[in-house]
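Title: Prediction job returns without error message
Component: structure pipeline
Severity: low
Priority: P3
Assignee: unassigned

Description:
Job completed but the reporter wants confirmation the result is attached to the right record. Sequence as submitted:
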Amino acid sequence: MRRMARFNATVELVRPRTLLVTPLSYCVGVSVAGHGFDLVVLLGIVFHVLAPLAANAHNAVTDLVEDGRNVPGRLKLVEAAGERLLQRIVYVSLGVMLLLSLMISLAQSIIWVFSVFLVLGYSSPRFRLKGLPVIGMAVFAMAVTEPFIAGALLGDSWWEIPHYDSYQPMALGAFLFFWYFAKGIMKNVPDYAGDKAAGLRTIPALMPSQRSAAWAAAAATTLVYAAFPVLVVVTALPDRLAYVGLMTLPAVANMIAMVQARTQLQYNLVGQRDMYVSVVFLGLLLFAWRPSVSAALIGLLAVAVMVWTDVSGKDSRASRHLDRAESAVTVPDGVGGQK
């Protein structure tokens, strides 16, 4: 029974519903490169699932102070899983990623070094990049930008790097960066009070109130989604990609809910819905770039994983973990709050 509880706690802490945008972005990059969905791509997908998995396990250990205020129930999950196990998951994941990168390509092997920095630097006490307003969001945005670049650099051999005759891949990569930068602002709004109390200098935490932070996140989110059809026209991307811009409607509707939110539960639900919007957006982008059965199946599988995690409650940010009664764990002084 204890082993099962430990396993369930670990699954919730690595957060399966948040592991999807990274491999989806990688697949978009692969499609841009014109590479077929073969075994090498499958290895790349595994690589880009392990990266956010390692990051989530690492964050669970380093973010105890702010989590104690924002998601109190998560502390009990860390206690059940054990910090040693979570740290072991981080380093085993990074090791497996290294082996996979060496099997994929030279470019992916170089990108592994950058991935390690992103995984460890974002929330580690030494660097604590998440505490720097712009740099922290830029690092967060690399969660989809880096895999897109990795996919776009996938050639037909271990040494080869595709040659592009246009700037379209660069333009799409830049859009994904700013798109996820805006998402980073949004995802920190529910944690406004806890981050501010913990001394984290996120962009929302610098705002005078949580409501003003919500308005800033809503404006940034609306702007990036509305900019996508413009990007398609200006950069002469395939016309069918413009239809992906329809995701502006649910994205804006969710942001309206954010500026109307007043409770932690309401803010949290906005964040949960936003991940659905993000996954569907990338899934449609993948299918629009490469209309195929395999692309459709990848997108549907991602949505299915999200539905499963929400129905089963396998997420450390599930609504039940927002209740302070969920956690009776004492956070040691200085843990997770260092800059």
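Comment from assignee: result matches the submitted record. The two ends are 38 Å apart (CA to CA).
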